[in-house]
Every structure is written in structure tokens, then in C-alpha cells.
Design brief:
This protein has 195 residues and is an alpha+beta fold. The chain is 31% helix and 29% strand. The N and C termini lie far apart (62 Å).
Length: 195
């Protein structure tokens, strides 16, 4: 009987933690988009212009996103600059660049423009405007390791081919949750700009 109480208590704690993580993820601003078409896990989206803070890093994908997260968090939480804190948004995105580089981005809250954002303290964090773009997307859950991302990216490529969509640039990986959110509750996406 005691074991049953302990097991029930652990399940309850895990459910509460999961609900808390889900509420936290749903309470942050996400970039709006217009859905052009929806097909199960796949979607064709039109995004408006976005203002982002970004950092360029190198290395393996997971190491690169971790390396980029620190300076970006320091920027939005006013750790290395004067001025107000900036609200966290979701997702954190990561796009491969040239020569093994990665660009890690935080999308800025919609209330800001390039002119109204606080200036970064150093040269590592850059403020940029991304132009409007059409993106093919696949949404999936789980811990976004290299194997899972490669699997979902391959699925997206097959879907895009079936839709007659041509990639315009390299994929972007989008992570919506903190690392403490259970894998089955995480939201991840692979997004590919298309013509």
C-alpha cells in the first residue's frame, strides 16, 4: 500500500510539473503567421517581418545552440547592458550558416522595433530584421536530438516535394520549450523557406 501511495505521489508531481511547463510555454509570445495550408504535422506559413537578436556560433548543433543561448539570455535579461529587461518569447531558432557556423536567434516581442530595442553591450549580439517570408514547417514533439531532427527534416523534404515547393535556403530549427519540459510535451519544428 505504501508503494502505491509513493507511486501515485510521483505521478502527481510529474503531472503538475508537466502542466506548469505547458502553461509557461503557452504564456510567452510567439511569432504570428498566416497559415496558407495545413496537412497534419505539415504547414505552409507566411510570416511577417520579424525583429530578432542573434548570435553566430560554431560547433555541433546542440553545442552551438547552447553557446548562443547564453549571450542572448544575457541581452534580454539586461545582464550585460543598461536598460529594461525584455520578455522572453518562443521559439529559440537555429539556422546553419557557412563553414560550420550556426545563427541562434531570439525573436523580439512585437512591441519593439530596431530603433526602440536597447543596444547590445558588445559585438556578439546583433539586432536584425528578418524580411517577410513563406516557410514550410513540420511540427513534432520529443527531445530534439540530431537523429530526430534529421528524421523530421527528411519527412518535410518529402512533403515539400509532393507539394511542388522548392527550398530557398537552409532549414531553421525551432525549439519552444525549456530543457526541463518532458520530451513528450515539447514542441519543436523544422522550417524551410520556400519560393
Amino acid at each position: 500500500m505504501k508503494m502505491l501511495w509513493i507511486t501515485g505521489g510521483l505521478v502527481g508531481v510529474l503531472l503538475l510539473a508537466g502542466c506548469g511547463a505547458l502553461l509557461a510555454a503557452n504564456s510567452v509570445e510567439k511569432p504570428p503567421y498566416e497559415s496558407v495550408s495545413l496537412d497534419g504535422d505539415f504547414e505552409l506559413r507566411d510570416y511577417a517581418e520579424q525583429v530578432v537578436a542573434e548570435v553566430t556560433t560554431t560547433g555541433a548543433r546542440q553545442q552551438a545552440v547552447s553557446a548562443g543561448f547564453g549571450p542572448l539570455a544575457g541581452y534580454i535579461f539586461a545582464k550585460e547592458r543598461a536598460g529594461e529587461k525584455i520578455a522572453m518569447t518562443a521559439p529559440v531558432t537555429q539556422t546553419s550558416g557557412e563553414g560550420g557556423e550556426w545563427v541562434v536567434r531570439f525573436i523580439m516581442p512585437s512591441e519593439y522595433t530596431l530603433e526602440t530595442l536597447p543596444k547590445p553591450a558588445g559585438a556578439q549580439v546583433r539586432l536584425e530584421t528578418l524580411p517577410p517570408r513563406r516557410m514550410a514547417a513540420v511540427k513534432f514533439s520529443g527531445v530534439a536530438n540530431d537523429a530526430l531532427i534529421a528524421e523530421q527534416e527528411a519527412r518535410l523534404v518529402v512533403w515539400m516535394d509532393a507539394q511542388g515547393l522548392t527550398p530557398r535556403d537552409t532549414p531553421t530549427y525551432a525549439y519552444y520549450n525549456d530543457p526541463f519540459t518532458p520530451g513528450f510535451m515539447r514542441r519543436n519544428e523544422v522550417l524551410v523557406p520556400v519560393n
